[in-house]
Amino acid sequence: MDSGRARLILQGIQDRQDASVQPEERSDLVSQGLLNPVDAATRDRWTAAVASLPSLRDRVREMSRAALATPGPIAPPDLQQMVGTLEELTRQKTNLDAMVWNPPTQEYFLPTLAGRNVLADLTTWQKRLGGGTFPDFLRNMYDYRAGLAQLVGRATAIYGGLIWDEENREDDVAPPELAFTNVDFRFAAMILAKRPINPALLVNSFQTFHHDTNWGSLNKVDRLIGSAILASLPWDFLTVRNAFERIRVELEYHGIVPEDRILASASLADVPQSAWAEVIKRVDDIHRGRPSLNFLLVSALARSSYEPAAALARLEEALSGMAALGFKDGIHIEAAASLLAAGPMPREAMVDRFAVAMSHLAGTFDPPYAPAAMIAANPLEPVEAIDVFRDCIGVVTRSSFYELTLEIDEIALILSYGVAPLGLGYLAANLPAGAPVQPVPPAGPPSPALATSWYIWHGSYVYRPIGWYIATHPVHVHTVAAFG
Amino acid sequence: MIREAVWVPNDRVGLVRIEGNLEFVGDPRFESFWHDEVGGCYVPELMWKLAGRPPGSRVDGIRDDNRSCLLVDRRHALRDQEYITAIKGCGAAVDAFENVPLTASRARSICRDPRLSNALAMADGTSAGLITGERWFGNTPYGGQAPDNAMIGLLASLRAEGAQIAGFSVCPVVGLVRLPDEFARISSRFFWYRRYDGAYWQEIRLMPSNVRLYFHSPVTFGVDTSRAFTLFGLESFEDAERFLTNLARSSFAALTLFARTLRHDSQAGLYRGLDYQEVWLDKDAVVAPDGTMHFADLEGIEEFAAATPEEVKEVIERQFHRHVYEATYALEALAVEVERRWRSVRGAADRHRWILEVLERACLADPFLSIEREGHRLVLHVEPSVDRTVCGLEIELASEAVS
Description:
Chain A has 21 helices and three strands. Chain A is mainly α and 484 residues long. Chain A is elongated, with a radius of gyration of 28 Å. The C terminus of chain A is likely disordered.
């Protein structure tokens, strides 16, 4: 059975319509627990039993009233038994209301919870089914979700390593204002988990960047984001640090202020050396074209696949389109517009995709503009990207990879970057550091597997507000001195 | 099988248990628990030192809300639920007028007795908690408990069978204990503006958890729903649905408290039932590990009289609408978390449908209410415990929401 047919069947039964399930289709769906068959005799028995439900309910209620009027430790046993029967009859009534007759197999079908979930998956990904078989679809979705759980498992191991390492370091202990919190370490661990090497090596790499880099800054969050991104790059420490520091010097020569330099250079550290001159020229051009634009956003546009003039035109269009929807003014709006402008979608689709993402993210992030733009700029359809994001929220929550509730969405957003079912994973695909920016093929390190800018966006416009909130609100924020 | 009580870790509070000849008023059902487990009053360590360290034993409490502590190793089971002992009125953790800990140095700044003030100069700066003599919210000592309020709570609790009043789940009150005069004298010397002129009492109650609906816990169900799920061990959709069933059933029992406790006082010619007085579900109720909402602050539950069936209906309707938002918020919070975790319901409409379906089932055996579908509406039929034909009424639960 192909996936399209499976969707039609499950949708039909969900809508209580005849889906004409053939015997061979039946066995696929029933064996997976996606449909429950009910024979006619059972259905008749339930129908007869349910007819007594109203009178039983009335008797139970009258007996309960009588029991409550009479002091006693517990309800009488016959009342307890009747309540049990009432609950069973109610279940049978619910089943009767939901079941659908299937003429080809002469039986009824009941939708199951698992069936409803698979139907939701099939509906979300229906454009991508492409005639594939239903068993392949199920396996693919299973593997994808298992992969998410494995990634969180890796992040958990890395997080544990970071905590242990920090607690057991003997050399120069960071001053308290620079010490990372558990929340910081979980953020870093989730970024690092995307790099498929031994967690212990990732811990070591992060700590080496953290402790052995001359950051020239006392900004803790810059150091956190910088260390996480640099440690996530697939090269050795010296190569990455060398690239990072040389780009930082270059950026200084090009007038980028110190407070932007760490993250701007970290965001470009995966660009091959042969392309640096081109990227920095673009930085200059974009900065000239829009002097007020934050350098992090300038560098995101500079490494996009668009020439500076085109990138700035896209930015203007994104800003005006967002303003028409009522989203205007402020650094977070500007960041969102830049992310949209740097994204791979056609310019006419930018704002529509953003609006779809915004409608789904309302109430999750505060402010939600940059996360919505990150979702909108991803090569999946917005509803698909939202679906992946929600899967990620689920796995982060179920894995308890958080302490504060407000961490969950932020960590899930990192987890969602680059992953998708059905072979649609897109690491780096939405941030083409590549072809248009590189006039000469890279001679040294291989082309980066991760698009570092994405994490810069996340760190600056998603993590930083959360970190600020946590730093300025006591954990026991809900326990106030009043009432009670 | 007995379900264990759960509690969210919070700040440790050093208390000293004072036993001996204490004035105590309690529920006879808990007499042996009182004598064997919790008998005594519990004073903050700082006050014990100020009193000259009379005989007593140190006890570790866990901060619960502002003026209460949990004694998590003193537990008692009622039917199939275990409860933790909580002492209400054993010292405030926070200054009454600033959001800062009520430390010894803070206490010194409101001390009206030079001898005590001098003694406090020797105390360290840790947050000690203090029962003060500031008159607070009517006539209650800030950090302590007033006898009349405590007695209202005990009287309400005495109406419970187990931990229920006609299906309404409560945190039962074990008893009330009067603070010995030597401590009351100390407390009365600490106040900011207005001195409290009454006796100082403590209320000993039993709680199935310290997870409140929305306010006043380190973890609240409405805000930290994901952590509450972990705490309550909800690991599957089926677990969550059982929890929702209990939450829905108990919430609707709370919303119909007046109707389910209604009686007719033939001497006075009045109807009487329990109503909420300046208490709310969001801050005054806790959620048990199985989802059953237990009302904790029983000092805010008193009898209310209605003269006619029409007035009874008005009270029932007012009580329902005054609190239904808080209850619905909790149900929605649960459904949102289920969607986030397992994606078993998807989207707002699906969540509402699920909640209403579970609610219908949950209330099926409730003798005082029934939920009926009427077209696209869902209607709650409230049938009070007496005179249901003239005092009963319908309340719309959901408009245009049922398909």
